[in-house]
Specification:
By secondary structure, this protein is mainly alpha-helical. The chain has helices at about 5-35, 45-60, 60-95, 95-110, 115-125, 130-150, 155-165, 170-205, 210-220, 225-255. The longest helix has about 35 residues, at about 170-205.
Length: about 260
């Protein structure tokens, strides 16, 4: 793209590839559904999926489920990201703490949130606490890995130079460590947001009475595949919207990074 291109041309250039991909997916989906290769009850057409989505929106079910899921995912993400970032900075900066904590986190990381649903339900019941903690658990482990790696890769010479110039720990953190690790922190937050949505599905299988994943389970019991596809579409679009918002915010805050 020419550097002097106008903003509308640049915007169209950026939007063209994803738009073409979406059109290709819709065309393939429509052709497969019309071919009869898959039973109509198992593979709804895009039109049938849109009708199910429109019906859910008009009755208010979609908005109630979306609000419930966003509340759980948002609170779990906030808790997990805060603890994961703090722990990641600490272990990345302090080698001895890293030696003690890293084996424990490495042990926990392969254990998916869905495997902890029965235990969380037994400990905290079927209320919201268990669901938020499950999401926070998954987000914490994902965020910690990115932040720990980013902080540990900050050149030690930079920190030593700041210390030799008399900068206190607070200034070394705010003016050296944090700016250098900011791109990794941004990547951690974006990845943690996607993990929060993945963990949300597991959390809502543990006795929820509302939410996008809960609705998918209910629709699956009645083989309402049109509603299931509509729910999957909403989950996917929600993930895209959150990632784009975080990426745009990150470009403004971490303006020295290309992330």
């Amino acid at each position: 793209m020419h550097p002097t291109a106008s903003p509308p041309v640049r915007a169209l250039t950026r939007l063209a590839p994803p738009f073409a991909a979406a059109v290709a997916v819709l065309a393939g989906w429509t052709a497969l559904a019309a071919s009869g290769a898959v039973a109509p009850g198992l593979l709804p057409t895009p039109a049938a999926t849109w009708r199910a989505l429109d019906e859910s929106a008009r009755t208010g079910t979609l908005w109630n489920d979306l609000a419930a899921s966003l509340g759980r995912a948002g609170q779990g993400f906030a808790l997990g990201a805060a603890v994961g970032c703090a722990l990641g900075f600490a272990t990345g900066y302090l080698p001895r703490l890293s030696a003690a904590v890293t084996p424990l986190v490495s042990f926990l990381r392969p254990i998916p949130a869905i495997a902890l649903v029965p235990l969380a339900t037994a400990w905290f019941g079927i209320g919201e606490t268990a669901k938020r903690l499950l999401i926070a658990y998954a987000v914490l482990l994902a965020v910690w890995l990115y932040v720990h790696d980013g902080v540990s890769r900050v050149p030690v010479t930079h920190l030593r130079a700041a210390r030799s110039l008399g900068a206190p720990l607070r200034r070394r953190f705010a003016e050296v460590l944090l700016p250098a690790a900011a791109p990794a922190l941004l990547a951690a937050v974006r990845y943690g947001a996607s993990v929060a949505l993945l963990a949300l599905v597991a959390a809502e299988l543990g006795g929820a009475q509302s939410g996008l994943a809960y609705r998918l389970q209910v629709d699956g019991q009645f083989l309402r595949t049109d509603r299931m596809f509509a729910g999957l579409l909403v989950l996917g679009l929600l993930g895209v919207a959150v990632d784009l918002a975080l990426a745009a915010l990150g470009r403004r805050i971490v303006h020295w990074s290309a992330a």
